[in-house]
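Query structure, 122 tokens:
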């Protein structure tokens, strides 16, 4: 069976409709923490359900913002990364997923894999 998250369909910002009853639902609603802000490397580590509003409130006191950000506070960073997130500033800095340096992905067999441009790039 295909997999999908268990987020309620009415919470999605997508125009694509998925029959979630036909999918194996993965619980992701609790993955909403900013795990690390590394000011030296200028890297932020987040879980996929962190919202644009949440990361903005975390970064603004540091004088930072995401290179590609939306004015939709409820959009999630995981959703932007997987859904080709772009803004009116994207023509200068690229698409949101192009600013992500690494993903941690759980495969269908339960294995956790780190994916970067150099490691598990497929």
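Result returned for the query:
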């Amino acid at each position: 069976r295909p997999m999908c998250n268990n987020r309620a369909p009415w919470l999605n910002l997508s125009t694509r409709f998925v029959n979630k009853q036909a999918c194996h639902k993965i619980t992701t609603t609790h993955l909403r923490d900013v795990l690390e802000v590394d000011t030296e490397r200028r890297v932020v580590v987040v879980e996929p359900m962190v919202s644009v509003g949440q990361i903005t409130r975390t970064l603004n006191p540091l004088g930072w913002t995401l290179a590609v950000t939306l004015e939709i506070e409820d959009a999630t960073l995981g959703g932007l990364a997987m859904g080709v997130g772009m803004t009116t500033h994207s023509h200068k800095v690229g698409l949101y997923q192009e600013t992500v340096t690494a993903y941690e992905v759980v495969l269908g067999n339960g294995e956790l894999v780190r994916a970067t441009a150099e490691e598990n790039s497929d």
